[in-house]
Amino acid sequence: MTTSPSASSRSKPDIEARVLQYGLEQPTLGQFSVAQALQAEGLKVSASTVRNIWKRHGLETSYLRLLAKSKGSEGGGKAELNQDELSQLKRERRNRRLAAKAKGQDEAVSALRREEVLLAAARIFAAKGYAETSLREVAAATGIQPASLYYHFASKEDLFATVHHLGISRVNDALDATIASYEDPWKRLEEACATALKFQLNPSELAVVVRVDPGIRYPARLQRRIDADRASYEDRFRLLIDGLPLHAKADRTLLRLTLLGALNWTRVWYRPSGPLSAEEIGRQLIRIVFGYGFQRVR
């Protein structure tokens, strides 16, 4: 595949044509791989842009791109699939047949399998990250056909969002139980931080998946779902800080952001062998952040 010397000056139509060219010539490459390849050519293209272009042209899945390549472009003859592409197309067709059959599964059994799949997916996402994980790996880890996975989740994006939501829901449930156990607003906040850190510093796969990493951006639609989950978690701390009897000049928004930043950063330096437990570190953060510099109103 060749590129002109003036790649960096390409117009949007040129970039779209290049993205489509990749989709039709190398249909098994995903949006992240294509974006990286085009960035190496000097084109400013994100993975979400690649996906959006493919989606507008009905090429958003590898199956659709393989079909398009096998049928050839509009003005050309039938393109020839290589052996690996032909094998994958056959597998995809078989998987779709199996997915149709999977819809007849008993719902009770399906619910159990769904939980098993989510935990297996959390383990793989935590170990390899979103970009490097495939639905095929998750299916293999749970001993089911990839097509059966599509019965529960429409895409890898949907699976990751569901795993992330499960993790956030668990920490939110724990926070709600903690908050309900205390009346004093300072004690509520201290124990909420203790609960949050106990979850965040836990080596469980769900805790790893929901950790905040500012260096990672997901496809736009997935990022919106993740942001909504994070907002539900952060809103609990907003309400806790709003309930504190602070000095009139205290900026509650700044305090909340400072506290959340401190909680998120703890995992970078925390060592389980240290003198303080995760819960005690959470309590100490409140005493450090709020105990000095801002007068409590009594």
Would you give an account of this structure?
By secondary structure, the chain is mainly alpha-helical. 67% of the residues lie in helices and 0% in strands. Helix 5 (83-102) crosses helix 8, helix 6 (107-128) packs across helix 7 and helix 9 packs antiparallel against helix 10. Mean pLDDT is 80; it is low at 1-9, 73-77, 104-109 and 292-298.
Tally the helices. 14
**Which band does the percent of strand residues land in?**
under 5%
Order of helices and strands: HHHHHHHHHHHHHH
Please give the number of β-strands: 0
Shape, please? elongated
Query: Class by helix and strand content?
Result: mainly alpha
Helix content: 55-70%
* Main β-sheet description: none
Low-pLDDT runs: 1-9, 73-77, 104-109, 292-298
Determine the N-to-C terminus distance.
71 Å
**Average pLDDT figure:** 80
Rg over C-alpha atoms, rounded to the nearest angstrom: 24 Å
List keywords for this structure.
single chain; 298 residues; mainly alpha; 14 helices; 0% strand; disordered N terminus; disordered C terminus
